Each structure stands twice: as structure tokens, then as C-alpha cells.
Amino acid sequence: MLNDIGHKIKCIRKENNLNQVQFAKSIGISQGNLSEIEMGNSNPSAETLISIRTQYNVNLNWLLTGVDTDDGVTYVEEIEKNLIDVFRNLDDYHKNEIVEIIRLKLRLRSLLY
């Protein structure tokens, strides 16, 4: 399991085009500590995991378990995840507008069937 977390952390670092020194500094640990984590020789602390989540918007459930979940919810289809991701980027006005559109669609559907 340690090896999996270390590998995922290394992938996150590489996806962001950072060397170990840069990535370690960004999450508040030493390069040596990062190296040990990436090799699977040590466990990242809770503080390190939170820092990675904060700095790189990483889903901790995925990082720890390998399951792509959000808030404990497993999405049935990729479109559900995409909908939530897009929805979260809207301001409150547009979020409410989308909710009303969905309610309208459901009302219209119930009239047709």
C-alpha cells in the first residue's frame, strides 16, 4: 500500500512538471522525505496528505485507496462526476439556475410519461 501511495504522489509531481526539490518545498517536506515516500519506504503524514490535497486538488480517497470517489460517493457514470465538477465551478446564481432547469426537465418528463 505504501508503494501505491508513493507511486501516486510521484505521478502527481510529474504531472505538474516538478522535480523532487520543488514538489517537496510546495508541500512542506524535505526532498529526502519525499524521496522515501515515492520509493515506498515511508508513509506520508496526515499533514503531508492534506498539503498535497490543498496544493494540487487531489482526491484523498483516490490517493489512499485508489478508488475515484468524492465525499464517499462512487459515481455510477463518468458523466455524473463531470456534472459535479462543472457545477462546483459555477457561482451561486448559476447553480440555482441549473437546479431549476433540472427540476423543469423532471416535471416535463413526468407529464410525458
UniProtKB/TrEMBL annotation:
Origin superkingdom: Bacteria
Transmembrane segments: none
PROSITE patterns for the chain: HTH_CROC1
An example molecular function term from Gene Ontology annotations: DNA binding
Keywords tagged on the record: DNA-binding
One Pfam family matching this protein: HTH_19
Record-linked SMART domains: HTH_XRE
Start and end residues of each HTH cro/C1-type domain: 9-63
Protein name: HTH cro/C1-type domain-containing protein
Organism (species): Paenibacillus algicola
Lineage, top ranks: Bacteria, Bacillati, Bacillota, Bacilli, Bacillales
